[in-house]
Design a protein that fits this description.
0% strand, single chain
């Protein structure tokens, strides 16, 4: 089926739900390590407590992707999953800051992460479903824009509530500050509202042969049948997907090191907090949230520029350069002692983050077989969650025995991983590049002689 080009505002509407999804992710990434420490966790325990995120992603995303490939009802193919995930995620966001024990927070993170994945995974396939090849980079870049905006507000919200709106004080006797709890409540409303906007404003294309699709639906029912299809897809991964795998592994290992330890590294190493009971610790964690907001703001500002840059130098070269910016940003944290200079470091991370959310998916989309977009986007998530599982299971030992619980060293290691990813990106073949060249008209003043 030849897909019609979408207008700017149609792409805006279909991507707006990612604003809410990233609100949930942003609150989780910026605050969960601190919540764990508020509830009594040691630095070497934090990686294993984060294990919920990658494990749920590995299990949920291929299943949801495969299920959405074989779904069609009154809401469409992907939108039923957007709605289900939004409802569950909003409930989990409300409950998370009310935890009073460490095991409660760790268990609820499993639920929250699973719910976010239910909404998020079909959004990647949504772009491929609705946009022609020449607009997919723009579509994924628009998702990056909303991811950046959502993360800016979510990451900075505890700091804003304390320092701008003076709502930091709350009920005494609760381990988690009131500003953090209120941020999660606001995040629940933002998540549900943004996803609902996309559901209401964007329609999906029905299957070309609805009767054949319904027959395929009935044949795909059953756990054994679905598992066979998923494993068969894994065995038949396109070449481009296999080439992108190590790039994704190293990129997300670097990001995971940052998410695990940047907030607490700022509190301990830059602000000099002796422990988590110190008021300085709370200030450091809140400033780290501002830094996260800054890199998310840069992500949002840079995202609209990526399609133009990729059009000039190619998508793989664009991604390599962006990853290198992120690597330099994380490496520079090791020599910074002024909190304001951290904002420059996070600018580099923001450029890398914008590209990571768009370029690999735009490159991958051109290599995927028709009818299997959802399941392959879910399988592609393996190369995000595997390094997170490795870090969750093994990085605690490294922190305890090699890095001696030096949180700053963990952030620097993240920069090294991202630099290696930038180098490996150069071996990736972009199969959609020629299709874009053929589809995009040549300007009249640039006609070759």
């Amino acid at each position: 089926m030849q897909k019609p080009r979408k207008s700017y505002w149609q792409i805006w509407n279909m991507s707006f739900g990612f604003l809410g999804i990233q609100f949930g992710w942003g609150l989780q990434m910026a605050n969960m390590s601190a919540i764990y420490e508020y509830l009594g966790a040691r630095a070497d325990q934090i990686p294993i407590l984060w294990l919920a995120a990658p494990l749920t992603g590995m299990l949920v995303q291929p299943i949801i992707g495969h299920a959405s490939d074989h779904t069609w009802n009154r809401l469409g193919r992907r939108r039923p999953y957007f709605l289900t995930g939004a409802i569950l995620s909003s409930c989990a966001l409300i409950l998370m800051p009310r935890c009073s024990l460490l095991w409660m927070a760790a268990g609820l993170l499993w639920i929250l992460d699973s719910s976010i994945n239910i909404s998020m995974e079909p959004f990647r396939a949504f772009v491929v479903d609705l946009l022609p090849e020449e607009q997919r980079t723009e579509g994924f870049a628009m998702q990056s824009l909303f991811i950046g905006i959502g993360a800016v507000v979510a990451s900075a919200l505890p700091w804003l509530l304390t320092n701008v709106f003076h709502l930091g004080a709350g009920a005494a006797g609760h381990a988690i500050p009131w500003s953090t709890r209120l941020s999660f409540y606001i995040g629940a409303a933002a998540f549900f509202g943004a996803v609902l906007w996309t559901i209401v404003t964007t329609k999906e294309y029905p299957p070309e042969d609805l009767q054949a699709f319904k027959k395929q639906q009935s044949e795909s029912k059953g756990l054994a049948s679905n598992a066979r299809e998923i494993f068969a897809a894994i065995g038949q991964m396109p070449l481009t997907m296999r080439q992108l795998a190590p790039v994704q592994l190293l990129t997300w290992l670097g990001l995971f090191c940052m998410w695990l330890y940047f907030s607490v590294a700022v509190a301990h190493n830059v602000f000099g907090a002796p422990d988590q009971s110190s008021p300085i610790y709370k200030s450091g964690v809140e400033w780290a949230g501002v830094c996260f907001a800054l890199y998310s703001a840069v992500c949002g500002l840079f995202a609209p520029l990526m399609a133009g840059i990729a059009g000039k130098i190619g998508r793989k070269h664009t991604h390599s350069l962006c990853l290198l910016c992120g690597a330099l940003g994380l490496l520079s944290v090791g020599v910074i002692h002024n909190k304001y200079l951290l904002l420059f470091s996070m600018s580099g991370v923001g450029i890398a983050w914008a590209s990571t959310l768009a370029m690999p998916y735009a490159i991958l989309a051109g290599s995927l077989p028709a009818g299997k977009t959802g399941v392959y986007m879910g399988i592609f998530n393996f190369f995000i969650v595997l390094p997170e599982i490795i870090a969750s299971l093994g990085f605690g030992w490294i922190m305890n025995h090699v890095l001696h619980n030096n949180r700053l060293a963990a952030v620097i290691a993240g920069g090294v991983f991202m630099a290696l990813a930038a180098l490996l990106m150069q071996r990736v073949v972009d199969p959609g590049a020629e299709m874009i060249d053929e589809a995009v008209p040549v300007p009249g003043d640039a006609v070759a002689l």
